[in-house]
Amino acid sequence: MNATPRAATRRKPLDPRLADAALAALVTAFAVGALAFGLDDEGSVDASSYMVAVLAGGSIAARRINPPAVLAIAIAGRLFVTWDIGNELALVPAAAVALYTVARYGDRRAGLLTASLGAVVMGVAAAALGDESFALELLGEVAQAFLPIAVADAVRTRADRIDDLIETEAEARVQAERLRIARDLHDVVAHGLSTIAIQSGVAAHLIDRDPDQAKEALEIINATGTSALDELRAMVGVLRSTHDAELRPTPSDPDDLGELLTAAVNAGVPVTTETHGTFPADVGDASVVAVHRITQEALTNVARHAGSAATTIRLDHHADHVAVDIENERPSGGGRAVASTGVGIVGMRERAESLGGRLDAGPTPDGGFRVSAVVPYYRHGA
Fold this sequence. Notes:
Layout: H1 6-9, H2 16-36, H3 47-58, H4 67-85, H5 92-104, H6 108-129, H7 134-206, H8 211-240, H9 258-266, E1 271-276, H10 285-305, E2 311-317, E3 321-328, H11 343-354, E4 358-363, E5 369-376
Parallel strand pairs: 1-2
Antiparallel strand pairs: 2-3, 3-5, 4-5
Helix pairs in contact: 2-3, 3-4, 4-5, 4-6, 5-6, 5-7, 6-7, 7-8, 7-10, 10-11
């Protein structure tokens, strides 16, 4: 037997028109029952009272179509039945629903004003028709009439707060998505342009003295530019898609840094790696992407600010996290390691912190630069 899809078992929301029709039937039944069983009657019930009760109760079915008109019918019906046979109870539910509807829907200020005016008019008229003290009748009627108005305003306030929370959350998601796009765009463009800039300088310097090496530099420029364009096209494709997907692909082998090392060498950065352990089999894509992008950005900064300074990458895998250290030596030629302008380091730090990790970056005592990060393992299904 085939399993029923979850979507097919979900209940559809009740049509408001059906809900209002059911509510109208309920208050009408109460009104007719109150008249039939003589609840709060002072005299015999004639056909006109039944007709008015059915009309006033039935009008609730149109309460969302024209709330003020339904309120007027409910109040008029209640006052007529009170005047005709002295029954003040039969149409109280219908009047309460009508007051609630006027206060709950439409313009807030106009709704509260209309409902309050209706409550006062009904309270004064009902108190005048009653057989008790006018002041006591008026106090009871007004309190009874303003209760559904207060409930309606409280419900509206809660709904408005929920809408505000939803809007705030949506804005936060938009800002987070913008940050994600900016971070990945920076990774693609900065890395590619840094390599192109370095190799174009090499080609220009060697074009006359060593054409073969200049040709090799131009081939690297071509390959780097093509790769960057492919990634940008992929990014644009994801942005046009309605599906939530990573802007940058996850490496097929989490422990393989070969592509990053090749790119660093192409940019003129000699790199050595020291790896202890591997990613766990159930590691999530977020952790792998974070490690690879942090490493890539650190190597890009070395190429940009330290030239051909020797760089070491250390990856130490632990039970619940991986420690990443990328350290370059003091730039040759009397130069010194210079920190990034900030965008790249901010992006690396955000990647680590988004997973509950941390990242520190700064100069070393010997004039080099070090990026040190702790990236927790984000497990599949966590």
